[in-house]
Write a structure and sequence with these properties.
Shape: globular
Strand order of the largest sheet: 1-28-27-26-25
Distance between the termini: 34 Å
Radius of gyration: 18 Å
Order of helices and strands: EEEEEEEEEEEEEEEEEEEEEEEEEEEEE
Length: about 350
């Protein structure tokens, strides 16, 4: 992935919105893969609150449900085996990293509702690991049965996880309570991005090499629809109300917006004026907790684009570091600094 040369002094914010358009609030975490850092950005002002080291090659980010800490997956090479724990009580002072030991190349991250555990794909090892972040411990390693398990999504009740397996073009369905593989589901070439709808009924999968999206019934684990989606669909994200699915189409320079019930594409939002052959973006995508806005990481342009989901318009462009990708939201202000165990420290 290219890294563009661009001044990265004071973070700049371009306000493009008409008055009345939604502006997200809270704090945005952006992982800059090439700079090995995490940026904490105040929204809607776009002011840079802090930057801290986030380990080598931080790719995906997640925030704990209690908003006390964030996590970045260090996906530098096949031998990588660490998670960086971000201290949301003191942004410039991250906690010690968590060593995953035999589980290599962590990438996709999702906290498991009701358990306090973090689910992380470990691509090189073909595993989904469950981590107690506060204790800094791996509590389970579950084989995905597939190659290049890259992204993960978890059902709202915390009972199941699903991994997108790029090399195999499949999805692994995992029982998180029994901690075992349930089924490997063929979807399409290059299955990567994945999300579960807020009602827990459907799993949407981006088959990037096939230019399609697969829709899986989360109970029966059967593919119930295949939807065309041109432009190298990489990640997808359901809006908070579940009404829409947002898809970053990297080579098209667009975000596709689909109506969830009908599974029809209803709009394309251009986030790159012109995608050069060397460009790869947008990639990371995230819906805000209130469902009114979305963030998109334009990786090769070193910016995060903010979308208003009512008007389907670009409202802001926020400058980042080099090659932003992983995004996470922190609504409000963290209540206190979390207490980690001596082992984690």
């Amino acid at each position: 992935m290219p890294t563009l040369s661009r001044p990265l002094g004071v973070l700049t914010l371009a306000l493009l919105a008409r008055p009345g358009l939604a502006q997200p609030t809270g704090m945005l975490i952006v992982l800059d893969k090439a700079d090995n850092d995490a940026r904490f950005i105040d929204m809607p002002s776009g002011a840079l609150r802090a930057t801290c080291a986030a380990g080598r090659g931080p790719h995906e980010a997640a925030v704990s449900p209690n908003r006390l800490f964030g996590v970045a997956a260090n996906y530098e090479d096949p031998t990588a085996s660490t998670l960086t724990v971000l201290n949301l009580g003191c942004l410039t002072d991250p906690f010690p990293t968590i060593d995953l030991g035999e589980s290599k190349a962590p990438h996709g991250l999702a906290f498991v509702p009701g358990s306090g555990l973090l689910a992380a794909t470990c691509e090189q090892s073909g595993q989904l690991v469950l981590v107690d972040v506060a204790k800094g411990e791996v509590v389970a390693r579950i084989a995905t049965g597939a190659k290049q398990s890259h992204m993960v999504a978890v059902t709202p009740d915390g009972s199941r996880a699903f991994t997108g397996n790029i090399a195999d073009g499949t999805v692994s369905a995992i029982d998180l309570r029994e901690r075992k593989l349930l089924k490997i589901i063929p979807t399409g070439r290059g299955s990567e991005g994945i999300d579960v709808t807020p009602d827990g009924k459907e799993v949407w999968v981006c088959n990037r090499a096939a230019d399609t999206l697969s829709v899986i019934d989360a109970d029966s684990l059967a593919v119930i629809d295949t939807v065309p989606c041109k432009g190298f669909p990489i990640p997808c994200k359901a809006t908070t109300d579940g009404a829409r699915i947002l898809v970053s189409c990297a080579t098209a320079g667009e975000v596709a917006v689909l109506d969830t019930p009908s599974r029809k594409e209803i709009a394309r939002i251009k986030v790159l004026d012109r995608a050069a052959s060397s460009d790869l973006g947008p990639i990371g995508i995230l819906s805000t907790p209130d469902g009114k806005s979305a963030f998109v990481a334009n990786s090769s342009r070193n910016e995060v684009v903010v979308l208003d989901l009512a008007s389907l318009a670009v409202t802001q462009r926020v400058e980042t570091g080099n090659v932003p990708d992983g995004l996470a939201c922190v609504p409000g202000v963290p209540a206190q600094t979390p207490a980690l165990s001596p082992a984690a420290r």
